[in-house]
Amino acid sequence: MHDIDIESLYELDKLTLGPESKKELLTQIKAAGFKYKPYFDRIGPGLSVVASEIKREIDLTVTPLLTKHLSSLTDKRFKHIYSDVRIYPQGQEIEHWSENGSWYNSTLSVLVSFVLAIPPDDSLDSMIRIDLVSLFDRDSNNGPYSPVVQKAHKKHKFFELLNVETVSRWMGECSTDDFLPHEFNGFSLEIIFDGCAEENHQKMSQLAWGPTIQTKKSQTPDFEINVPVVTPNNTATSVPILIASFAKALGYEHLDPKKLKRNDSLLALMSYDLALTASLKASFSLHFKIISSIGGERLLTVGNCIDFAEMFADNLTSDLADT
To answer: What is the topology classification, in CATH, of domain 235-322?
Structure first.
């Protein structure tokens, strides 16, 4: 790794680094011969999509449970929390992704942060951090944790919801044009608790998802969407139209099929709305008469949907042959 404070880089990427520390880090980065680019501009579409998918999984299970019990776990000091997931190629954290496969054969670092809203008259002390991190330790007898944390550890078993095994399974089901699990040498997982000013918490919780792309992929005013029959030979053009039609049925009128690219994230196209994204994916699968694909690749991008359609388009053309 270059002579750069990696922990400070993580905080800068999450926007939780203080101004003086930021100034010092940027000086280090410049001295190392690099120009700092924000995380999602630097890391590339593959790791960005996988990071958002891990965050999605966490926000469906762990984050709501932490939110529910955060006040009691922190002696009623803190009430709001969000998750932030970043994936880095070890030793290349400050480098910029390029399409020639610059992360190929690297070992990945998966950093899961839970960021608390810190009131103006409070701060996130080390004991609170240690207590909260211990929730994800299978052996709760490693430290002098508070009784309320010990109770939550035994009752809710956070460590079963988020650990190396669960993250490995999620990543193993992610395959896109820019991320293939077998091209990496494994990963490490780190779970930490961080904080930001209460007044910035809501905004930062949205930024943690990554850049919004829906506006760039849209056109106005509303336009008619005519969905062709999807065949194995026309998936590149018909699938984006199909995606736009499902988005329209779910309430978003303006997604432009002609602007959709293979590496566009479905989650980002639906503005990181978990329920709407789940409905979009379910509608897409059902269109091809597939209810679920156990152990198969996840529908994360437009490219995944195109590849899925190529596999199952015969389900539709066979119906035409029968009529």
So the answer is: 1.10.1200
